[in-house]
Design brief:
2 helices
Length: 122
C-alpha cells in the first residue's frame, strides 16, 4: 500500500514537472511571437519610411532647383528650402514628445500587452 502511494506521488510530481516545463515553453513561444510581431511591424514601417524619405529628398532637390531658377541663382533655392526645413525642425522639436515618443511607446505597450492566446499564424 505504501508503494502504491509512493508511486502515485512520484507520478504526480512528474506530471507537475511536465506541466511546469510546458508552461515555460509556452511562455517562450509567446515571447517569441510578440517579438517577431513587433520587429516585423517595425521593419515594414522602416522600409516605408526609407522609400518616403527618398521620395521627399528627390522632391526637395527638384523644388530647390525650381525656386533657384525663379530667383535667378540656383543656390537661393537651396537656402529657401533650408529655411523652410529649419522652421519645420523647430516645430518638430517643440512637439517631438507628443508626436513621436508617445505614439511609439503606446505602440510597443499595446503589442506587448496584447493578451490573445498563442495561435499559429498562417
Amino acid at each position: 500500500m505504501i508503494d502504491n502511494h509512493k508511486m502515485a506521488l512520484e507520478s504526480l510530481f512528474e506530471k507537475v514537472e511536465d506541466c511546469g516545463k510546458t508552461s515555460i515553453e509556452l511562455l517562450k513561444l509567446q515571447a517569441i511571437d510578440k517579438t517577431v510581431d513587433i520587429i516585423g511591424t517595425i521593419a515594414i514601417k522602416l522600409t516605408f519610411f526609407i522609400v518616403l524619405a527618398t521620395f521627399i529628398t528627390m522632391l526637395n532637390f527638384g523644388i530647390a532647383l525650381w525656386i533657384g531658377e525663379l530667383l535667378q541663382k540656383t543656390y537661393y533655392g537651396f537656402f529657401v528650402m533650408a529655411g523652410f526645413y529649419g522652421i519645420i525642425a523647430l516645430l518638430f522639436r517643440s512637439y517631438l514628445y507628443q508626436w513621436v515618443q508617445v505614439p511609439v511607446s503606446n505602440f510597443i505597450i499595446s503589442k506587448m500587452l496584447n493578451d490573445k492566446p498563442f495561435e499559429a499564424k498562417t
